[in-house]
């Protein structure tokens, strides 16, 4: 019997640029999917969350475009740091705005409240991960 494994080990890169691209992709997928769902069915989703049709449609259009942009960034070998910082800023504002909407909205459903809190936590975490990875990419490129 051979001591050699049958399949080569999978390689995972922990290089800062690779991690940054992964975090961007992790952001882009759900963002775009949510945006498309909001555009396709704003009425039922708006009623289910208690947010209303028009805001859900507007958010859906934004999320679809933003998710596409973030997805495009994730395909760059070395995503431009200025664009990444813009994504981080939008995500940070989005996380805070998600909680603010809950605080000032008159009648979200219980599911709408849970969705808003979960969204704030996930988007905030992504902002932190993306910011940290962007800092590592910047530090790596300094002499």
Q: What structural category do the secondary elements indicate? A: mainly alpha
* Gyration radius over CA: 19 Å
Task: Supply the number of structural domains.
Answer: 1
SS element count, helices? 5
Mean pLDDT figure: 90
Strand proportion: under 5%
The ordered H/E elements are HHHHH
Number of strands: 0
Low-confidence stretches: 6-12
- Please outline the major beta sheet: none
State the separation between the terminal residues, measured CA to CA.
49 Å
Helical fraction equals: over 70%
Shape: elongated
What does this structure look like?
This protein has 143 residues and is an all-alpha fold. The chain has one domain. It has five helices and no strands. The protein has helices at residues 16-40, 42-49, 53-74, 81-104, 110-141. It is elongated and about 55 Å long.
Structural features:
143 residues; mainly alpha; elongated
Quick structural summary:
The chain is mostly helical. The chain has 5 helices and no strands. The chain starts with 15 loop residues before the first helix and ends with a helix.
Task: Please render the helix and strand layout as text.
Layout: H1 16-40, H2 42-49, H3 53-74, H4 81-104, H5 110-141
Helix pairs in contact: 1-3, 1-5, 2-3, 4-5
């Amino acid at each position: 019997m051979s001591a050699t494994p049958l399949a080569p080990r999978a390689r995972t890169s922990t290089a800062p640029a690779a991690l940054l691209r992964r975090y961007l992709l992790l952001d882009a997928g759900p963002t775009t999917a949510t945006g498309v769902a909001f555009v396709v069915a704003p009425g039922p989703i708006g009623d289910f969350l208690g947010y209303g049709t028009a805001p859900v449609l507007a958010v859906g259009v934004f999320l679809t475009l933003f998710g596409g942009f973030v997805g495009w960034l994730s395909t760059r070998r070395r995503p431009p740091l200025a664009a990444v910082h813009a994504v981080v800023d939008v995500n940070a504002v989005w996380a805070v705005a998600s909680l603010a909407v809950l605080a000032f909205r008159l009648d979200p459903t219980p599911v709408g409240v849970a969705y808003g809190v979960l969204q704030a936590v996930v988007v905030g975490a992504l902002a932190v991960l993306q910011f940290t990875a962007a800092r590592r990419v910047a530090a790596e490129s300094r002499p």
